[in-house]
Structure formats: C-alpha cells, structure tokens
C-alpha cells in the first residue's frame, strides 16, 4: 500500500495489523473473505476529503465502516481495500430545540442519539436490535428501518440535512436541515440508502419528534400465517399502532432458550404477533383483542402490566436475530405491499417447505410494514459452504415470487455483496442503468465501496 496513507494519518489513526484488518474489515455477514490492506480512522471532514482525493489519484478502493452491523456484506473489504472507519467521528455537533434537529457526525452510535434526544425532552424514533452498536452514518447509508416503521417510517424520513464527501473528494451539503426547499433534485435522497457507493456520509442533521405516551405491548398467539394480517387490519380499524411485529414458534423457541426467557403464553401457537400502542389506546386494544379472539384468529394473548414486562415481551422479538446467529442462518429480508402479504406468505412458505424439507426455517419480522425476515438454519452436520450453496440455489425461486408481486428482495438490510447479483428481481434494467450512470458521475474513479450494490459491469468486481 503506497506510503501516502502514513502521510495522511497519524500512527493511532492507521492500522495494518491482522487483528485490526479482521476486526474492521467485516460486518455481521460471515460468508465473505476479509482482506483489507489497512484501516484508517479519520477525525475530521478535511481528513476524509484528503483521503478520497488521494484514493482517486492512486486508484485505491475505499470501504466505509460504521457499526459493522450490516447483514449484506456492504462494509466487507475482501480485495485489499482501505477501510474507512468513522469510529473517531462520533460527536454530536449541534442541537436546536426550535428546529428539533441534532447534527451528528457519522460515527455517532444510534443509541447515543436516542438517549441524547430523551435528555433534551424529545424522541428519535428509528429503533432496531443493533441500535447499541450501529452508527448514524451507516443507518443513513442503508436507510435502516427496524421495529417502529409502521408509525415513524424509515431513517430516510428523519434526515433533514446531510454532508457527504463524493468520489471526487467534494463535500456536498444537502438540504441544510430545511423543512421546505423546492430547489431541484433532493440529492439527500440519492445518498440515503446508497451504501457508501456514491459518497461517504460524514455528518447528518437528524430530526426529532415529541416523546410518545407510555407504551403498552400485547403478544397474541395465532395459528394461521394469513390470520396475522387479519389481526393487523382489525386493530388498525380502531387504534394507531406504534409497532406490529411477528415471529414463528421456531423463532420463539430459539430466543427463549438463548436468553433463558419466559414464554409469553401458557400454550404455544404457530405464530405470534407483537403489538405496541399508546396508553390512551388501551381500551380500544382490549376491545379489538376480544373481537379477534371471537373471530377465531387469536387463541390467547398477554398485555404488559408494567414497563418491565413490556421490555421483556420486546426481548422475545428483538433477541431473535442474535439467538439464531449460532445456526449460521441463511437470511432473506423480503417485502411486499401489506395487501399482498397473505398470498405471498402462503406461496413462499409452501416453496420453502418443499425446497428445504431438511432445514429448520424461522420466520419473523416487521409484518406490519410488509417486511418478512426468512432465516434458514444450517444443520449441525452440514458444512457452511454446502449449506449456503443449497440456499443460494433456491433464492432465485423465492425472488421470482417477490418479483411477481412487485416486492423487494431486500426490504431493509441493503444489497451490499449478498444481494447484488439478484438486484434485477426488484430493479428494472433502465433503473439499474441510471444507477450505474449516477455512480459514474459521483464516483468517476470507482473507488467508493466498489463491487457493492450494483451488479458488476467489468472493472473492479
Ligand atoms: C430484525 C435483524 C437482523 C436479522 O430482527 O428485525 O432486521 O438478523 C432484523 O435479520
Ligand atoms: Zn428487521
């Protein structure tokens, strides 16, 4: 690696030892080789710009690295790239109560922003299991969703301003935190979800909202996959939900065993719905509960009686991902419109059961916003390469189902390396051509996270 990195960064900002290369060259995927050439830790926007200008001149590939909680290989460095960690750009730079805006450096941990907002009497509503280690820059770069999308939307909806360093080393300031700004293309939304392939997010002006009322949680036992959506529709007739999640009995067994938790109900069911709503909706929720039981959709249910119990019930859902990790799951993160969900679930569940009779399947996810997480668990006696090959074989057939319903082959986890070659199941050829053209404009030397998100067109793979 040219020595110029040593001129750009101090010793404490530059690592080449193998332990560091392994630690910062990966994300939460486990199926890619980890082989960066160096890890750099810029401490300012100027340093990021100087690095990108050097990389553009020298043709050095750069991979952005935040909390490294990604699930699609978006932050994986396998080809000698230089990993750009934002761990040291982790300060909250500004807060304005009137504007309800917090200006964060990219490396601010999501939970830090959530706690900062509460301290100031506000609320940052985007939340998910990895919020304790994910970073705002990565949340914006992947348009992270999580468990409150049904009421609060996605990260995209909370970005009021963005500072980005493009592949030319230019610093672009998008939207300046304005509520209204009708002056042409909103480039903010081009960078949000671009997974570091168009530029590196260095600062974000994040919006805050009012703190919610005390929240109550219900977990309901449901036998038929399709009835989960009947329950969703019925509750939504009489109250506004802040969350509507689901998980299968198989997923519940894994999380109860892994975290030594209490099961939510006396008996078991094939599926469980977890609902969260405001204290003021508790009577309406009680009535809806009785009605869905009377309709035969729900067998049993529990309502949290305290904040502690609400959190314990949430653990049953939020602990699933971590509880499955030991089974090296092959993950699919799918979405269709909620109206398409019942038929889609039936088709994909039948296909998965027929395709993987020998594999254990765990379903869970944010069904209230049309997002299913399908995890196929690796049998103990099957090696990971053979297991992933078997799963990869069937993925196209699952994606055909998704495509037939105009769904997404990656609802919230991004494309990265894992879904890159399947992008055509969700994006049209003209769209992908436009994305390639935009990439050429913003990253002319193809150094910004090359090989990620966009299918290969020759050059860096
Ligand atoms: C979830 C977390 C990542 C995974 O639990 O909602 O997005 O393991 C997931 O699927
Ligand atoms: Zn999720």
Set down the secondary structure blueprint.
Blueprint: H1 4-8, E1 14-15, H2 18-24, E2 38-40, H3 45-58, E3 62-65, E4 82-85, E5 92-96, E6 101-105, H4 110-119, E7 122-123, H5 136-141, H6 149-152, E8 159-166, E9 171-174, H7 188-191, E10 199-207, E11 209-210, E12 215-222, H8 227-238, E13 241-248, H9 249-259, E14 271-278, H10 282-294, E15 298-303, H11 307-318, H12 320-324, E16 330-335, H13 341-355, E17 360-365, E18 371-377, H14 384-404, H15 429-442
Parallel strand pairs: 2-4, 3-4
Antiparallel strand pairs: 1-2, 5-6, 6-10, 7-11, 8-9, 8-10, 12-14, 12-15, 13-14, 13-17, 16-18, 17-18
Helix pairs in contact: 8-10, 13-14
Bound molecules: (2S)-2-hydroxypentanedioic acid and zinc ion.
Characterization of the model:
The protein has 461 residues and is α+β, with helices and mostly antiparallel strands. The chain contains 15 helices and 18 strands. It folds into four domains: 4-85, Uridine Diphospho-n-acetylenolpyruvylglucosamine Reductase, domain 2 (2-Layer Sandwich); 92-210, Uridine Diphospho-n-acetylenolpyruvylglucosamine Reductase, domain 3; 215-321, Alpha-Beta Plaits; 328-421, 2-Layer Sandwich (Alpha-Beta Plaits). It has a seven-stranded antiparallel β-sheet, sandwiched between helices. Strand 5 and strand 6 form a beta hairpin. The longest helix has 21 residues, at 384-404. It is globular. The two termini are 19 Å apart. The model has no long low-confidence stretch (mean pLDDT 95).
Structure summarized in a few sentences:
This protein is α+β, with helices and mostly antiparallel strands. It contains 15 helices and 18 strands. The structure holds (2S)-2-hydroxypentanedioic acid (S2G) and zinc ion.
């Amino acid at each position: 690696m040219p020595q110029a990195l040593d001129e750009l960064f101090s010793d404490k900002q530059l690592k080449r030892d193998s332990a560091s290369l392994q630690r910062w060259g990966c994300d939460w995927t486990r199926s890619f080789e980890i082989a960066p050439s160096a890890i750099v830790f810029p401490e300012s926007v100027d340093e990021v710009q100087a690095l990108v200008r050097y990389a553009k001149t020298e043709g050095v590939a750069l991979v952005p690295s935040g909390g490294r909680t990604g699930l699609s290989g978006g932050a994986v460095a396998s080809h000698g790239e230089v990993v750009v960690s934002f761990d040291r750009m982790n300060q909250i730079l500004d807060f304005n109560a009137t504007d309800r805006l917090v200006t964060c450096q990219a490396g601010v941990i999501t939970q830090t922003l959530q706690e900062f907002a509460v301290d100031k009497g506000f609320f940052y509503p985007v939340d998910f299991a990895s919020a304790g280690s994910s970073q705002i820059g990565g949340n914006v770069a992947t348009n992270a969703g999580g468990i409150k999308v049904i009421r609060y939307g996605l990260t995209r909806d909370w970005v009021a301003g963005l500072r980005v360093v493009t592949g030319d080393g230019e610093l672009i300031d998008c939207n300046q935190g304005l509520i209204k700004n009708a002056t042409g293309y909103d480039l903010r939304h081009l960078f949000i979800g671009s997974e570091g392939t168009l530029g590196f997010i260095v600062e974000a002006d994040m919006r805050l909202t009012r703190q919610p009322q005390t929240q109550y949680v219900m977990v309901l036992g449901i036998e038929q996959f399709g009835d989960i959506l009947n329950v969703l529709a019925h509750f939504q007739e009489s109250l506004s939900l802040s969350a509507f999640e689901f998980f299968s009995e198989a997923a519940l067994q894994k999380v109860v065993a892994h975290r030594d938790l209490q099961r939510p109900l006396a008996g078991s069911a094939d599926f469980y719905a977890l609902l969260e709503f405001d204290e003021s909706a508790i009577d309406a929720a009680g009535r809806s509960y009785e009605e869905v039981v009377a309709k035969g959709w729900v067998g049993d249910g529990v309502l949290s009686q305290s904040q502690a119990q609400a959190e314990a019930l949430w653990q049953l859902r939020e602990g699933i991902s971590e509880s499955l990790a030991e089974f090296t799951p092959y993950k699919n993160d799918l979405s269709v419109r909620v109206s398409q969900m019942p038929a889609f679930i039936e088709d994909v569940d039948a296909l998965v059961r027929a395709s993987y009779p020998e594999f254990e399947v765990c379903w869970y996810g944010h069904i209230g916003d049309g997002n299913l997480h399908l995890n196929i668990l690796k049998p103990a006696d099957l090696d990971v390469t053979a297991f992933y090959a078997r799963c990869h074989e069937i993925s196209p057939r699952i994606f055909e189902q998704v495509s037939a319903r105009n769904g997404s082959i990656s609802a919230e986890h991004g494309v990265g390396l894992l879904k890159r070659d399947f992008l055509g199941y969700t994006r049209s050829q003209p769209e992908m051509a436009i994305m390639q053209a935009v990439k050429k404009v913003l990253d002319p030397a193809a150094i910004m996270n090359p090989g990620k998100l966009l299918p290969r067109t020759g050059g860096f793979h």
